[in-house]
Amino acid sequence: MRAPSRPTSPKNAGADVVESSGSGSSVLGGVFGRLASAQEVWIGLVLAALLAGFSILDPDSFASSFNLLNLVADAAILLLLAIGMTYVIITAGIDLSVGGILVFSGVTATKTMEATGATSTGSLLLGALVAVLTGLAWGVLNGALVAYGKIPPLIVTLGTLGMSLGGALLLTGGVDMRAPSRLNLGLGLDKFAGVPLIVWIAVAVTIVLGIVLAQCRFGRHTYAIGSNEKAARNSGVQVNRHLVKVYGLAGLLAGLAGYLSLAKYGITGVSAHSTDNLQAIAAVVIGGTSLFGGVGTVTGTVIGVFIPAVLQNGFQILGVKPFWQQVVVGAVLIAAVYLDQWRRKARDH
């Protein structure tokens, strides 16, 4: 699930080949050089080291199948937000509203299911449809304001963050709503092949959108806009329309995440998702997606989601204060951004 390769400019054409007088060493150097420069490789090694370290420190608790399944299930919802955020950031945008959209979608889904009985399969499916469509509507609004209103994404999505959270508070009176018990005991707890259904849904979405980003025209246009919007327009890409679709996708995934969160935790969690947007952004950036646009992969985002998830889980098991998890994730985020800037400067020179 990699970004489409781009032609190498003459300026850095020799960057991937290590000069050496030895026979064949330049070829080997080029191979290892390209491997070493892949962001996914480095963050993958970090994730592997964390898993190995916590497994050694507490093999009975951390490495148990029960704990690992819970870890993956907890990360599944954030993964949906991060996949949508990956698309947005690749276009050189940002979306601060996903946490608010998640909450608002969960609230509207709950009210819909309550109004339709909340006991039938049809009611639960209707709730899911409402959640997804509500998220899509917020995302399209974001995209329209960014693309056609020419308002900076930071301002637009900060505004819709407040609007969606405020709307959820108005609808609930500031009190968490309980999900229908059938949803919580069904989708929230059911498993297939020993793995929670929520995880399977997140995996399916990740695979599909990873293929779309890496292999389809929609993905190529997403990269083109983030790399050079003017050139993309000159090449015939309908930039404004595409941006609406990208933000709409991010909103749709936030709506789906809201419904799955409702199923897993059993409540709307009106005040529990205030930092979801920052966690999603951190996961995407740690995964190698550039805040400057045009660079990023779904594979990297998946790894970026699990690094803070593993840290939090491991620290809890070891009895380390949770504040340290925030400190470590913050440090990793700064290091990832610094590495991105360094790579950009090296490429430009």
TrEMBL record:
Q: What transmembrane ranges does the database entry give?
A: 41-57, 77-104, 124-145, 151-171, 192-214, 278-311, 323-339
Q: What is its main location?
A: membrane
Question: What name is this protein filed under?
Answer: ABC transporter permease
Q: PANTHER family attached here?
A: ABC TRANSPORTER PERMEASE PROTEIN YPHD-RELATED-RELATED, RIBOSE IMPORT PERMEASE PROTEIN RBSC
User: Where is composition skewed (Polar residues) in this entry?
Assistant: 1-11
Where is the secretion signal located? none
What are the start and end residues of every segment in region (Disordered)? 1-23
Going by the UniProt record, its keywords in alphabetical order are:
Cell membrane, Membrane, Transmembrane, Transmembrane helix
Q: How does it sit in the membrane?
A: Multi-pass membrane protein
Per UniProt, subcellular location reads as: Cell membrane
